[in-house]
Amino acid sequence: MSASLDKGVRVLKEVIDAPIASYFSSCVHCGLCAEACLFYTETGDPKYTPIHKLEPMRRLYEQEYTLIGRLKKVLGLSKPVTDAELGEWQELVYNSCTLCGRCSLVCPVGNDIVYMVRKFREGMAVSGHAPEGIVEATRRTVSTGSPMGVTMHAVKAQMKHVEEETGISIPLDVEGVEYMALLSSMEIINFPEYLSAIARIMKHAGKTWTLCSTGFEATNSGIQIGVSDLAKTIVSRIVEGAERLKAKTVISPECGHAYTALRWEGPNLIGRPFTFKVQHIVEVLDELRTQGLLKTEGFETDRLTFHDPCQLARRGGVIQPQRNLINMVAKNFVEMPDAGKMNWCCGGGGGVTAIERAEALRIEAFKKKKSQLEAVKPDRLVTACAVCRTTLEEGLEHYQMNIPVVGLTEIIAEHLPEQGA
Amino acid sequence: MNELQFLTWVRGTGLNVAVGVFLLGVFWRLIEIYGLGRKKDLSAPRHVAGASGWHTIFRRSIPAQGMLKKSPVGYIGGFAFHIGLAIVVLLFAPHIKLIQSLTGLSWPGLPSQFIDLVAVVTLAAMVVVLADRINKPVKRFLSTFEDWFTWAVTFLPLLTGWLSVRHLLFPYSTMLALHILSVEILLIVLPFTKLFHAFTVFGSRWYNGAVNGHKGVAV
Amino acid sequence: MQGPLIEILARQGITRRTFMKYCATLASLMALPPSAGRAMAEAMAAAGVATKRPSVIWLPFQECTGCTESITRSHSPTLESLIFDVVSLDYQETLMAAAGHQAEEALHNAMKAGGYLLIVDGSIPLGLDGAYSCIAGRSNLELLKEAASGAAAIVAMGSCAAFGGLPHAKPNPTGAVSVSDVVKDKPIVNIPGCPPIPVVITGVLAHFLTFGSLPELDKHGRPKAFYGETIHDRCYRRPFYDQGKFAKTFDDEGARNGWCLFELGCKGPVTYNACATVKWNGGTSWPVESGHGCLGCSEPDFWDAGGFYKALSTPANPLKMASAAVAAGAVAGVAVSFANRGKKRAAASAHETTTLADLEK
What we know:
The complex is a heterotrimer.
Chain A: H1 5-15, H2 18-26, H3 32-36, H4 38-43, H5 55-65, H6 67-74, H7 83-95, H8 102-106, H9 113-126, H10 132-144, H11 152-166, E1 179-181, H12 185-189, H13 193-205, E2 209-210, H14 221-225, H15 228-244, E3 249-252, H16 256-270, E4 277-280, H17 281-290, E5 304-307, H18 320-329, E6 333-334, H19 359-365, H20 367-376, E7 380-383, H21 386-398, E8 405-407, H22 408-414
Parallel strand pairs in A: 1-2, 1-3, 3-4, 5-6, 5-7, 7-8
Helix pairs in contact in A: 1-9, 5-6, 7-9, 11-13, 13-22, 15-16, 17-18
Chain B: H1 3-34, H2 49-59, H3 67-70, H4 72-91, H5 93-103, H6 112-135, H7 137-142, H8 145-166, H9 172-189, H10 197-215
Chain C: H1 4-11, H2 16-29, H3 34-49, E1 55-60, H4 66-72, H5 83-86, E2 88-92, H6 100-113, E3 116-121, E4 124-125, E5 134-135, E6 138-139, H7 140-149, E7 151-157, H8 158-163, H9 165-168, E8 176-177, H10 179-182, E9 188-191, H11 198-211, H12 224-227, H13 231-234, H14 238-243, H15 253-256, H16 275-278, H17 322-349
Parallel strand pairs in C: 1-2, 1-3, 3-7, 7-9
Antiparallel strand pairs in C: 4-8, 5-6
Helix pairs in contact in C: 2-3, 3-11
């Protein structure tokens, strides 16, 4: 096994760039990022201040890429970054950061802190300091195709199940279709409703679509662990599949990280722009709606609210479509405080759900979501990310709040007009 | 060295050196920082990034949703001291005269009583911000020697300037010389400490705005 | 009060009442109690009739006679010049009738007696063994040391004697120094100004005559009574400064409206002198009132303080090193950038594709 501090330092030297230099030079230690981070607001522990999570990388930047830092290093005036130190930082870089990016939006000098955490993880991972849980998830994704060990067999079983339930056949490996749909393993295991919903909606809208046997898994734990090489391997499966099937658009499922990994990181990982479009399912549905291809009937009458997955809204730029869709089918939709761009994370993003040791902290941080929900007291909570959904369910259960969580796509599918009507 | 010689030195040699070090530092640091470059983003943009970058340079001065309540002292104190500093530095007649002699540009100043008031408010705001740094666990936790030091070198020019206008503590000429000297220390220190955010804040905000604009997030 | 002095004054058209008033003013200027005015008047009147009037020796060195002009102004005799009627001015090159050996003899006689007041105007050149300025073949330095040894006190009259003055200005070719640079063991009072205000001179002399001592001095050896406040503090144009109303040129509207001359280089804020209150030419006017900023002539080194017409807030030449500094900064920045990019490239080319095996130690 070959993880080492040297490798970590080398990779960090590779990823540190002008924005990071500018950010570190701009920080005035105002501490406002702490107020944006649910791990700080819910624990009150200053070590969770976002910019502090980058301290070893800051010192490395200074020692390697500034003249004064170099001089100080030569004169032995600066504290070198050690393996033990990076080990200590694991908790700060992984366990207590969901890459939600809220800090990046409040920093008064404009520091994109989450951008830096993402890069710092590159160095942490190859120096052997990524948490076991994410390492395992990544190992499974690379070796079996999915972080939860889901194989094509399981997908096929579910396809069969959905076909029987809906009477609609699920296309697989069909060339030249408009949409190629992806799934997240969480959906394959926990939320089969999603596949069924897609099948019904596509049929309703009259759009051609397919699943791809070589690229069905949307999630990319290579991004969360912070190893671009592995993330590239993972994303390449989707790219090859989509190009082989000549799909016009690839649909990222109800999974936030899967969306940003494919939509924003994907082309940069493979080193060229995609030949196809990437859309989150929520964007696809909203587009069908504006084209008049998505019609619904009936309304939900209970009080609904929407949890914006960070990666979809703040990190993905999809904020309005989900609201347009909910309003199609809900009479009593209320917004939580800070909803939309500034929504609070469920606490499970960035691979945190995969880290066993982070569970207690995650439950603590969930108090933020709890207070948001208490402010609006919904009957049900809608979201558009399977990981958020699981995290929300766990948190609600822990705090004994009886609020069912549902996926947006399913709700829409439930309101499709009856067949033939 | 008598008072006038001291004043003459700080206005002459001292200032020459300080301005020299400042300019040298600013150019060196800016090139050092931005010379690192960055990779082109290959993902298809939702919006053209540049406009959002420029936009963010201005808009990031306004607290994000809900943040003012979280840290009222930090924000209001910060605003008061940054704006106050700008008014005192840029709208006090003798300062304008200095800028004019350097650049040829000049503009109308504000009455000195008003500047005096602003200076007092700014000094108070800086003390409040310092108290906040001592009081707030996060700020105290983040603070290093540099944070206290840079506070002092920013505070001193303001304090000595105000004392010299008010003719307090020392004779005017001595106070004026101390004021100029403190500004010189500030100039020398600025490029090599966190005070350099005065320059990099624009780059940082631009990057942040551009990255978010690329994704279609209005920041 | 009677006596020869009062009669002399009456002959010049100055009444006893005017003289008393003058002494009272003098006392109040020096922040002395009102009774001191009468005491001064009496002391001066008495000195005028004493068989042995206080002996004064006035030595001129590297000077322009401006200081003498200031106090005597023979074309328009004033009360100030009458101070000479009460002292025995035993040696004053410009005023004395004697010349050559006669004059030297008067000097030596006065010095022999001792206990005299020594007034010096002009700086003392030390360069070339003092050859720049000699009287009767002897250097100023030698004369000063000799005259100082028997003096009760020394008055350094004008900025040259007090601080070195214009001869001391950079590059100071004659090696000019002040009296206090040479004489260390005698009480010295500095009355700087180029020239000093006449009433300040008389005030100090009257104080010496009345109380036998020198008035209270500031750290530059100047009588606090006259040099206690800045020109700026007592300037009648000060309200304009506070309102931010400045004359920008000598002939603009601001100048015509009598606005503050700060921006035209007035050194009032750093200059301690009594011009703003005492004024010149019998209280007629003073530089700022006549439309010109204060030069700061009563301050040490005022001649080298960065230019008479440069505002105090305006430095002499701060951008002197600007282009060199910018160039050096750019070179340093580019050099570091090159090194950084090399380092980054090296890190990138050393990149081995990370595999699963690389995630563990």
